[in-house]
């Protein structure tokens, strides 16, 4: 929430942000879009950026428009959940310090702890018996019943899940949808964030990808507005297409890598289990982080703003300096896959069969 607040405080016209409103319909023509809100009011503009999350209703409206344009062809990618996740926040367990990342592996299950000064964000990932495409809203009772099954499960060598639970402030149980939409725009509507590319949280790439997509779309729109203050439908479509072209492969790569890592961390097969145990003994400790950095350093930035002066990190972004690393996608793929083989155990507090 702090981040949203920071962004909100920098807005030049805050009254444009309407809270507690939901979109019910979108009408578009050659002159612009009209967004109908639940209270009956109408917002008008040139484009709609559908950033309304994994179950995006605006995406449905976009596909309705696209399907009308394509003789009722069905274009939407169906999201699938293979895992469910109970996640929560608790007081920092004894033995852990701020900055610790602990990952504990089991057959078809994985527990992650991300430690801060006073509390820990924890995630209990469990493979579903059967993958589902159905949207599920778990009740608090269902989440409690789920948690009860894991109370005696060790999460570090000195902490059980019960210890975390007893010091917990909040928890949520949710299925983890996965999928990248093949089409991100139609007419004046464009998808952004989870609405376009949804991945599991295991490698923490979801929001990062949403931010990159926002930067890419903004760069393209900024260029368009420099050349024309009243964009046409064609010029808007061209911008949306260029945005999807720039972002699709990186988002898909993040999605695929994360999907693989989710399976790997949950020891879906014996090869994954033994690879996660053996590879840290062979490769240097920094290897997984270096590999992930190769992906992160290619991130999109806002091109029309000066980057504030700051100390360069250990790994520079592609546009900052030439690095010794090759940046091709093929090498990133190989490196990324190797990285996930190692990351699991480096983050492991303990391993259990
Ligand atoms: C447990 C968990 C942990 C995560 N950890 C990380 C992490 O460490 N790092 C990381 O990068 N990512 C992480 N993610 C992923 C990250 O949360 C998402 O990728 C990110 O929030 C996506 O942003 P979004 O704006 O696309 O969608 P959302 O954050 O889902 O926002 C969508 C917004 O649209 C609104 N909305 C929905 N429907 C309508 C409508 N009809 N009308 C108007 N408004 C509507 C919703 O109220 C909501 O405010 C995690 C996800 C989960 C589940």
Automatic annotation (TrEMBL):
Domain of life: Eukaryota
Keyword Hydrolase: no
Residue ranges of every copy of the FAD-binding domain listed in the record: 20-226
Keywords, ordered alphabetically: FAD, Flavoprotein, Membrane, Oxidoreductase, Transmembrane, Transmembrane helix
Transmembrane segments: 330-350
Family matches, as Pfam families: FAD_binding_3 (PF01494)
Entry GO MF terms: FAD binding; monooxygenase activity
Family: Belongs to the paxM FAD-dependent monooxygenase family.
PANTHER family the UniProt entry points to: FAD-BINDING DOMAIN-CONTAINING PROTEIN-RELATED, FAD-DEPENDENT MONOOXYGENASE ASQG-RELATED
Name this protein carries in UniProt: FAD/NAD(P)-binding domain-containing protein
Organism listed in the record: Tothia fuscella
């Amino acid at each position: 929430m702090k981040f949203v607040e920071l962004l909100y405080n920098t807005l030049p016209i805050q009254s444009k942000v309407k809270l507690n409103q939901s979109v019910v319909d979108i009408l578009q023509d050659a002159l612009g879009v009209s967004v109908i809100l639940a209270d009956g009011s109408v917002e008008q503009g040139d484009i709609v950026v559908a950033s309304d999350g994994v179950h995006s209703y605006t995406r449905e409206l976009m596909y309705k428009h696209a399907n009308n344009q394509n003789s009722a062809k069905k274009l939407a990618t169906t999201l699938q959940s293979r895992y469910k996740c109970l996640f929560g926040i608790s007081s920092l367990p004894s033995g852990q310090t701020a900055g610790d990342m602990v990952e504990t592996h089991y057959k078809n299950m994985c527990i992650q702890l991300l430690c801060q000064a006073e509390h820990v964000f924890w995630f209990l990932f469990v493979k579903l018996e059967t993958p589902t495409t159905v949207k599920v809203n778990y009740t608090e009772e269902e989440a409690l019943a789920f948690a009860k099954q894991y109370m005696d499960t060790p999460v570090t060598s000195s902490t059980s899940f019960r210890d975390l639970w007893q010091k917990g402030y909040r928890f949520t149980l949710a299925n983890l949808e996965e999928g990248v939409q093949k089409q991100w725009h139609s007419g004046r509507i464009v998808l952004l964030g989870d609405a376009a590319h949804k991945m599991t949280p295991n490698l923490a790439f979801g929001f990062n990808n949403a931010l990159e997509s926002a930067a890419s779309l903004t760069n393209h729109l900024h260029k368009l507005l420099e050349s024309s203050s009243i964009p046409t439908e064609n010029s808007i479509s061209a911008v949306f297409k260029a945005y999807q072209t720039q972002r699709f492969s990186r988002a898909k790569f993040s999605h695929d890598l994360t999907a693989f890592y989710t399976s790997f961390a949950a020891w879906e097969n014996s090869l994954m289990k033994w690879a996660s145990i053996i590879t840290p003994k062979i490769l240097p400790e920094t290897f997984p982080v270096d590999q992930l950095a190769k992906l992160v350093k290619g991130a999109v930035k806002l091109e029309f703003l000066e980057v504030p002066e700051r100390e360069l990190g250990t790994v520079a972004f592609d546009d900052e300096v030439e690095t010794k690393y090759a940046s091709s996608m093929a090498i990133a793929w190989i490196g990324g896959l190797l990285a996930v083989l190692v990351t699991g155990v480096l983050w492991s507090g303990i391993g259990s069969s």
